[in-house]
Amino acid sequence: MDFLPPPLVDHHSRPVLHGELGLGRFERLLAGGVSGGAGTAGGSADGAGWFDSAAGLAVLRWCPPLLGLEPHCTPARYLARRREAGSYAARRMLLRGSGIAELLVDTTASVPGEAAAADGGEPVTVAELDAALPGGAGELVPLAELAAQVGATSGSVPAQLRNLGTALETAARSTAGFVCDAGPLLRYPEPARPPGRAEVIRAASAALAGHRGPATAALSHHLLLEALRTGRPVQLRCGDPAPLAGLLRETAGAGVVVLVPTGGRAHVRTSAELAARHGHVHTDAGADPAVALAVAPFGRVLFSTRAALLPELHVVRARAFERSLRALLGEWVADGACTPVAARRIAERVLGGNAREVYRRRDGRREDDASVTTTARHRVAVPR
């Protein structure tokens, strides 16, 4: 049975960049977006560099048709077409062709591949992405940056704590959610117990004095709880999510937490186990949907690309995830583990429905925009 998946909601991505890109610059950004560090160009005998990699092959398979070229054209021809279209138009065609209708962007300043980012131009704003996508884009406000901005303009501890509360409430009215690194939270010695007022005041005082580390961990803990109380979800970027178990027990009833494990399959599985254990916890699906879906309830698994720097990475990661999900659901239907109707429901939830519910995104596309075209989409086939 074939069915057209719903327009995807990518619940965690990073900024893409402005700028016209030559071969060397594109390869550096591709390397940075794939590895999370500053990429280097070149390195292959035929001069293809990072195009001569699995990521490069995926770009040349899926992206040229979105710009009017045949798949697997030469890198030079693809980049010439990209420059001919212009940065704005190429980005728009690629993002729309990815099948992603709505995008949530982690605007943390230190995007992957900082050296590559500096080489490639300024980040595209969330407002520009909102205009480029049929369902729009939303911002994920970094809690650490918000706290730093408040601290820099607050002359006393009482003013800092008061202004933090005001800033969170103000941000919650316009943002899709909040995001923070789990590292500082893990330095708080009693994660299963919220910090008392005296602890928060001492931590705020230490932060104003420029201290970092355990002395300010209670402030990070307080900030997380206050963000959850606004009613917006908070994403926790983490390596191994296992040490967060106590914190997650404490936050039950406070709001919605979305775990975004940055490690491999083992960390995704741990994240899914925590989502299965706690009703307010959701998990990023990772690159392979089979890992999370084997453990967590289907309604708590969310698709993301985690793409950065290049819109091409949104395309290839969305394609890879949909193909993996199609294969997995096809196996389940073929084995009699679920019906085609159930498979369709699971796909709809994971690819977009769960994120729309968690982040309270509007249902459907903007009225002034037609749907993502079927020529830019590809069907997910599930056997009868």
Please provide a written account of the structure.
With 384 residues, the chain is α/β, with parallel strands linked by helices. It has a domain at 2-20 and 86-132 and 233-381: TIM Barrel (Alpha-Beta Barrel), CATH 3.20.20. Helices cover 48% and strands 11% of the residues. The protein has 16 helices and ten strands. The chain has helices at residues 23-35, 54-62, 75-85, 87-97, 114-120, 126-132, 143-152, 157-172, 183-186, 197-208, 214-229, 245-251, 265-277, 289-293, 311-334, 340-358, and strands at residues 2-3, 8-13, 100-106, 137-142, 177-181, 234-238, 257-261, 281-284, 301-302, 380-381. The strands form two sheets. Strands 2-3-4-5-6-7-8-9 form an eight-stranded parallel beta sheet. Helix 7 packs across helix 8 and helix 15 (311-334) packs antiparallel against helix 16. Mean pLDDT is 86; it is low at 43-47 and 363-384. This is Amidohydrolase.
- The CATH architecture classification of one domain is Alpha-Beta Barrel
Mean pLDDT: 86
Which fold does the CATH topology of one domain refer to? Answer: TIM Barrel
Shape from CA axes? globular
Outline the low-pLDDT stretches: 43-47, 363-384
* Total strand segments: 10
Q: Output the structural class.
A: alpha/beta
Protein name: Amidohydrolase
